[in-house]
Batch of 2 targets.
Target 1
Amino acid sequence: MLITGASQLLTLRGAGPRRGATLAELGIVKDGALLVRDGLIAAVGTRAKIGALPEAATAEKLDLAGRVMLPGFVDSHTHLIHAASRAEEYELKIAGASYEEIARKGEGILNSVKKLRAATADALKQRARRALSQFAAHGTTTIEAKSGYGLDVASELKILRLQKELAAEQPLDIVSTFLGAHVVPAEYRGTPAGVKKYIALLAETLIPQIAKEKLAEFCDVFCDRGAFTREQSKQILEAGKRHGLTPRVHAEQLTRTGAAQLGVKLGAASCDHLEQINSSDIAALSMSPTVATLLPGCDFHLGLNHYAPARKLIDAGAIVALATDYNPGTSPTVSMPMILSLACSQLRMRPAEAIAAATINAAYSLRRDQHIGSLGVGKFADLAVFEVADYREIPYYFGVNTCWMTIKRGVVVYAANKTTI
Ligand code: NIG
Ligand code: FE
């Protein structure tokens, strides 16, 4: 396929993850074109250059008529599989209840756990499929997906097996993370011995089983007040590492626990949230290959005014990524464009920085930057086309979906509906 007519083709070319000033370098080709062969990028450059290649003459043609094309978004933090929304809590929060107060009453994550355990695999799959098609409709071509609403052996395995099935049945890539350490489930709560027993179940039963069945690549922990302590998190992440699961951490979201520096020490692929980090955490992240993944959808949805210090992280040289954190409790959105809007207006990231954070840096955090996150010869033809003439209009327009087409490994997986007016 020969794709021409991109007013701006954002290649994100250049080596590896982006830090500091390089985060804003998008490698823009004006009047850009792309040749796709067998799902991979065969050539990329200007229309004049690519159109003159011998293969271009016989290729199927797609003219973007001046729209903007970029790598498909890589959403590196989602809780894809859950049974239902928590709209009732949304209203309680608006009336003044805090996220933690709701959790302490046995609602919050535990509410989602109850509902997931009661749901059939079919119902969970159907809901996830609808979400996946919405991810695609907003320009996302790869997602990370965490378990964590099962919290017993059968339910956690059910979630991860469903993710594997979904990965095989539909075009988007799904990268699995085990989050058995989301919170301590009700049946183990109340005594230190119970908590210890749950951690042993994760470390000695679930993690080995998941590794054996190759159901996940990463192991995540929610290290925070009301969830797991730094010590407990370390124990769980180390057990994951022993079985080949790379750590990721929900770090410093509600309170500062030292989780970010723990993540750095353990070689975590990413530390996510980071609303409560201090200058020593910023220094540690900036000197490490651990990605600082920011999730501004949470603060927006919860109505909190404590966004992560993105500018300080970028200016210190940390590898910053952005993700939706799609989940029913704190960030019910699949829209990376909305996350870019929040990154620009609330985190003060430049549009170019936000795009690199949502593509190449996110791909790096999933250990897939060799294949996705930028447009170069040999990489996957994972593409998002937006109905705009300037890439800055992607975050600029908010609350509307300007995604015009999404292509996964050379196949069109979303094309904007034709309206009749
Ligand atoms: O990333 N913080 C922990 N986990 C999720 C929220 C999960 C929930 O409330 O259901 C998050 O924000
Ligand atoms: Fe999360």
Target 2
Amino acid sequence: MPTATAKRKPKTNPPKMTYCWGESKTEGNASQKDLLGGKGANLAEMTSIGLPVPPGFTIPTTICAAYYEQNGRMPVGLDEATKTAIRRVERETGKKFGSNTNPLLVSVRSGAAVSMPGMMDTVLNLGLTDKAVQGMIELTGNERFAWDAYRRLINMFGDVVMGMNHEDFEHEFDVVKRKYKVTLDTELPAKGLEEVCQRYKKVYKAKVGSAFPQNPYKQLLLSIEAVFKSWNTHRAKMYRQIEGIIGLRGTAVNVQAMVFGNMGKDSGTGVAFTRDPSTGEDKFWGEFLIDAQGEDVVAGIRTPQPVSKMRKWNDKIFCELLVIKKKLEKHYRDMQDIEYTIERGKLWMLQTRNGKRTAASAVKVAVDLVATRLITKDEALLRIPAADLVQLLLPSFTTKSKKDVTKLAKGLAASPGAVTGGLAFSAEDAVTRAEAGEDVILIRKETSPEDIDGMQHAVGILTSTGGSSSHAAVVARGWGKCCVSGASALHINPVRKTVDIDGQTYGEKDIFSIDGGTGEVMLGEVERHEPKPSKAYLTIMKWADQKRRMNVRTNADSPEDAKRAREFGAEGIGLTRTEHMFFESDRILAMRQMILADTKEKREDALARLMPYQCDDFVGIFTAMKGLPVTIRLLDPPLHEFLPHDHAGQRDVAHALGIKPSQVKRRVEQLHEFNPMLGHRGCRLAITYPEILVMQVTAIVEATIECKRKRVDAKPEIMIPLVGTHEELAQLRELTQETIDRIKKKEQYRGKLTIPIGTMIEIPRAAIIADDIADVADFFSFGTNDLTQLTYGYSRDDINSFLPHYLNNGLLDVDPFQSIDVAGVGKLISMGCEGGRSVNSKLKIGICGEHGGDPKSIEFCNSVELNYVSCSPFRVPTARLASAQAEIKGK
Ligand code: ADP
Ligand code: MG
Ligand code: MG
């Protein structure tokens, strides 16, 4: 039948289902990550450049996509294609799949275009059956090894493919260990392991309902399907969401001949980075385990040795690895993260990828690679994830305060940082307590992919087992989160929520401090201090500054913030909010008096009391920012925010101001609004209460003159918020200018005093009629928080009730308050720029919303040729680098 229809229909080529690699033929290469996944593409590439890689083949991501398109049915023809590809591997290795004399074993490994460490599934030792295990014994003469491999397969297959509980197997293992009176897995003799296999098969049958498959192809195909399925597990989806990985087709599946690191004392396995992933130092870095299979290192079950100790074990292999390090770095022009296995003294490469690294390491590696001419400066700039630079600005513990503190234990310095927090013994606890506002350290024996939510919420991660390549360490480094791993003095009881260290017990209420740069675990809070920028960091920032076109300003409301931002490289202030200044204890009363005043005179009286405070604040900020522009936004929030809403609070205010509590209550009721965000706020306040604007402008001008007289070059810019019509701005601009002129005259100031007057563009209408508004504006600043809120109609404060659902179900790719919605909000920004510049080609335009510190949004800002972005102080270096990257990419 099929042949008959095939003849009539025009021929369509069936999709290619396998891409092989091996000595005789290699079909893929490193550029095909989208199709073959990172792992598959690089296995092919390593084979091509002559490195020792066990042969195998990749089932491309398109097949995984097809699997999902057909609602989870295996694509027709895949089993045939797999069999053909296995035959090639048989020829390459001279072994036979399922054979009882010379069996070929394979691994089935997931691998998407972007690496998702530990998120998806892998099954090792496939092809072992009751028959093949005998073949394995014959082939290797190592009975213990063969049974060990078989029990691992049944366990992994049951676990990963059949969804069994790992504990079921663990229990059986313990029974046998007890019987043989041993404590370690490795002490069990061959006979014992054989017994373990028999028991494993029994629980397998009991739980799964059918016997462990004795047909190797059945094992293989089920495992391939399990890998497809692992693409869409909850944890994998979560990981992609946290990491912002979108638009991938699925995972590829790699089927590869097994090599064995567990064949005795001359075998082993390990992982390594070609440079130090924490600091970037150019030294081979990693760890290995003797007589073990790969997953033992990553799972954190045994604590491995550092590679520096390998020389003593096998110097030849160590030297070989050093040669490979050089070769890989030269070929990939970047630091690599590798997996390798040594089978009876022969080295095999199992994986390479660009190594995940901390920001400090990224910066150092990039600068060093430029020095050795492997990459250009532009490439170096593009290599550093701009958002990660925040990590470099984080404080560390002071040496002095560390001296006086109780040191509890020392683990491995897995991911740098210095944090203090309460102890959370489970991921769920970490999430709940962190969401309630507490700083917590997640403390676990080891972490697993199920814990990522808790790991994200914690300020730091502390584990008692596992090395620097354990799950905890890898994930933490990727996120720039502080982590100490393998602190073996910790005896953690997750059920009782306690940890015993040296005979002392600590619980949820205790506070620990951990230092991810040294591995120290300390009791209580430890003083911290600001970091010192490294030479490599300064170099990168210099290159970035030479490259970028946009200026970078900061959002700062206090002299301290302004000063800090300036140290981070801010070239001015893009947004100073004045309302914070009214909340401080010494002024809030005058503010309230102003709001409660029932006549203009009384209001002016109260404002006159506020004026000197405002003036002082401005002097402080102008001084910290001397020589650089400071954009001051006039009062923005609705007035009710300044009044207490509870009875007791209202009584206190009434008492302090000598009025009746009922008067306060009445005013609060008067000011009540159904939609305060859309209510009486922004420039609407200044329109109805012009005296507020007059007071603020007076304070700005007085402060400027005071500074100028002290030879401090103050450069204020006055920004009027929430403008939606030409008239609003025209009227307020006139009042502002009048006030400036009047104060200048009153102060008899004869110097130059040009204070630009502009507006925030944060109401969609303002963007649409930007040409009209530009008529009366010296500058625009896009307030993208409100602009996003008003464009989508999403209240920023209430979005969490539906945003998670939108993100999980693909209704939104990202939170539009974090990264600019280019299609909608971006379009308004483009319109605003065009409209504004059509009237005034020199109009200065910036952005001062949260987006000003987000690299993707910054790229957009550069594309519409904004003059500057403004962001919080800690994000200033990020914005400098991201602006440079945008410029390089835009070319
Ligand atoms: P992950 O992406 O979680 O690291 P991998 O597919 O890399 O998963 O495999 C898990 C572990 O199994 C790794 O340590 C790897 O080196 C090891 N491994 C995978 N395939 C083989 C193989 N063919 N021979 C020996 N070890 C293997
Ligand atoms: Mg791996
Ligand atoms: Mg606003």
